[in-house]
């Protein structure tokens, strides 16, 4: 056994002992509202790590703490209880994954129904969302729903990214309690295992939010296999998503471990230097990232790089596409600054201001995050102004993104006021711009 392997083994043992020591008697945590001091229903945690998870969940505006039970076992967090929104259940997982010391999250949260679902209306809302969302427009997807709010998706799409985007769009719709994704990926020429490895390595190496130097990549019979270490469960999820390169049948990350860097000290020298590339190579990496995103399929983006300073130019078909292009470019390791000269062409001949307003209104009405917001919409020559009040910053942010996703919109002025006056949390790439995230900064 090498000295490095022995060191890793010793550190892993220390980590196990530290996590085992964190298991304590059950703690009941009450959260008092600042305005009234009235105690909310209890959330129950069973360890120090569970308390850390609870504190992180308290910062999320839509996760409900009432009746939430958080248990940990050797870094594996199990969430039980219920939420009123599927979006809240999903965010509980994503938030918990960002907590140091969490290796994996098991989500056993159920989604409550206020009443039996109107299946016809729910199916109509889902079809409309898939038809109008930039990530899924153009795909032929069959939709069915049952009285419990469970939606089943079937059909064929070009790749895994398109399949995942379809599910993400549906999970945000009010009334949806679960999604059965039976969408198949069109069979086409499969790249060689060697090509899959090369593509996955590049995706990991040039992402600004994971450390690809710590991840080994292999492939067998079309399955990408990951091994190594990442700093958090959130980084592990992102690494898996990045490794779903074109042509991959699956991604096996059973050997990709989460190791808390607070316990395992790894020197930068032992990892080696990040690869340096020319401006031409950096431009090629950015172009590849943009071409892989279905939200940019109808856009023509030119990329120029000089001394790591990136200029994006060309035409995009929506304001959201412009934001996506910026977000994806910023996420490439090695990018210094980004100058956006992207233009959203005027589409007045296609959509009137009244049509744009109606589309935004319907999208906001069906989105579970904005369901309780009172939002006024005005449109003048494709420039949208949003006014009114939202109960939290996430609803305000999603309303902005929904408006930006509508074709014909070239600008959004967001004057929505948050009822509690609380601003958004600092940007978190694992929550705000994951490969399949709805919200793009």
List keywords for this structure.
441 residues, Histidine-containing Protein, Chain: A, five-stranded mixed β-sheet, three-stranded mixed β-sheet, 17 strands, 34% helix, disordered C terminus
Lateral strand order in the biggest sheet: 1-2-3-4-5
Largest sheet: 5 strands, mixed
Radius of gyration from CA coordinates = 23 Å
Indicate the mean pLDDT. 85
Element order: H for helix, E for strand: HEEHEEHEHEEHEHEEHEHHEEHEHEEHEH
Distance between the termini: 47 Å
Individual helix count: 13
- Which class do the helix and strand fractions yield? alpha/beta
Number of strands: 17
Q: In percent, how much strand structure appears in the residues?
A: 25-35%
Provide the domain count. Answer: 5
Folded structure, characterized:
It is built from 13 helices and 17 strands. With 441 residues, the chain is α/β, with parallel strands linked by helices. It folds into five domains: 3-111, no CATH class; 119-185, Histidine-containing Protein, Chain: A, CATH 3.30.1340; 193-271, Histidine-containing Protein, Chain: A (2-Layer Sandwich); 279-343, Histidine-containing Protein, Chain: A (2-Layer Sandwich), CATH 3.30.1340.30; 353-432, Histidine-containing Protein, Chain: A, CATH 3.30.1340. Strands 1-2-3-4-5 form a five-stranded mixed sheet. Strands 6-7-8 form a three-stranded mixed sheet. A hairpin with a 2-residue loop joins strand 9 and strand 10. The radius of gyration is 23 Å and the shape is globular.
